[in-house]
Design brief:
The chain is of the alpha+beta class. The protein folds into 3 domains: about 110 residues, Rossmann fold, CATH 3.40.50.20; about 110 residues, ATP-grasp fold, B domain (D-amino Acid Aminotransferase, Chain A, domain 1); about 60 residues, ATP-grasp fold, A domain (Dna Ligase, domain 1). The protein is about 30% helix and about 25% strand. The protein has 10 helices and 17 strands. The strands form 3 sheets. Strands 7, 12, 13, 14, 15, 16 and 17 form a 7-stranded mixed sheet that branches. Strands 4-3-2-1-5-6 form a 6-stranded mixed sheet, with helices on both faces. A 4-stranded antiparallel sheet has the order 8-11-9-10. Strand 2 and strand 3 form a beta hairpin. Helix 1 packs across helix 10. The chain is globular, with a radius of gyration of 20 Å. The mean pLDDT is about 95.
Length: about 325
């Protein structure tokens, strides 16, 4: 493999889900930070219409060259074929967060950032992820799984989760398809919204407490938790408007006593190890009045725009995004 500063990196974004536009913003931010660090970066956009490498020309006009999916390369007109040494995946949702793209790169033998295909597939599916953690010491709320087309008894769901409850697509992010229901009359519409994003849905107990997010990454010394963020939504929950349109306050580092901070970070590191994560992930918790961090979900490819949570955590840790991201991509493939 070429020396670090000579390596050709691909930052991949886009995807096939409702999170396409958010992924584009994340990917362009990551590409910019890596270029600031002196790295040789091409942006690769994936959509249902095709895969393209974006090649800015000297006059600033962006050119698109189709990706050859046989070896994940591209050939600009009049130039030699370009292959990539490593790939930084910033797709949120299908196919870059659910293990499909990771499996493709594993088959080609191309090094990429983040979790393996198996880990990503488990982590991205909310019910599968919680099932993987049930015999660990992780604190989990009650839930029930439904497949599209399943017959279900609303009263049984209520007895399992109570009301209010959250209805979520098992595979999805950015709160697309998520509904908080207060009565069983709202269940059918909530499930329809969830099934618009995924073939499976999870109905979860509504947990009360403080919403705390923790990102974990690994280096040569093992996994480390970044400073915590407390989310204070100005809406009923941390939905799309709260996440991306300013309808929330985000406190970083979270104003927690040291003992509570350590408890949540240790829980996140335990879950990271239990799932077999690598690279960077972000986890969402509800810190209950019983001083237990209740796990909600893990994001294998968290948002990476300048306004996203992870860049705030990195800044609070005293690092630049350039240093942090180059560390992630340089370590990719070492585990």
């Amino acid at each position: 493999m070429r020396p670090v500063n000579d390596q050709i990196l691909a930052v991949v974004y886009g995807g096939y889900s409702s999170e396409f536009e958010i992924s584009v913003k994340s990917g362009r931010s990551v590409a910019g930070w890596l270029r600031n660090a002196g790295r040789n970066v091409y942006e690769v956009i994936i959509s249902r219409k095709g895969w393209w490498a974006l090649d800015p020309s000297a006059d600033g006009q962006e050119q698109r060259w189709p990706i050859d999916r046989n070896d994940f390369s591209f050939t600009p007109e009049g130039r030699e074929k370009i292959t990539f040494d490593k790939v930084f995946i910033t797709i949120h949702g299908d196919p870059g967060e659910n293990g499909r793209l990771q499996a493709y790169f594993e088959m080609l033998g191309i090094t990429f950032s983040g979790c393996s295909s198996l880990c990503a597939a488990i982590a991205f599916d909310k019910y599968a992820c919680k099932s993987y953690l049930r015999d660990s010491r992780a604190h989990l709320g009650n839930d029930i799984l439904l497949h599209r087309g399943d017959l279900y008894n609303p009263e049984e769901i209520k007895n399992r989760t109570g009301l209010p409850a959250f209805v979520k697509p098992c595979g999805g992010g950015s709160s697309f398809g998520v509904t908080k229901i207060h009565s069983l009359d709202e269940l059918d519409a909530a499930l329809n919204s969830a099934f618009a994003e995924s073939d499976t849905a999870i109905v979860e107990q509504c947990l009360y407490g403080r919403e705390i997010d923790c990102a974990v990454f690994d280096d040569e010394y093992g996994p480390h938790a970044l400073p915590l963020i407390e989310i204070i939504p100005r809406r009923e929950f941390f939905d799309y408007e709260a996440k991306y349109n300013g309808a929330s306050s985000e406190l970083c580092p979270a104003p927690l006593p040291e003992e509570d901070r350590v408890r949540i970070q240790n829980e996140a590191v335990m879950i990271y190890h239990r799932l077999g994560c690598s690279g960077l992930v972000r986890m969402d918790f509800i810190y209950g009045p019983d001083n237990k961090p209740y796990f909600l979900e893990v994001n294998p490819n968290p948002g990476m725009t300048e306004a996203s949570l992870v860049p705030q955590m990195v800044k609070a840790a005293g690092m630049s995004m350039e240093t942090f991201l180059t560390g992630l991509i340089d370590r990719a493939g070492e585990k």
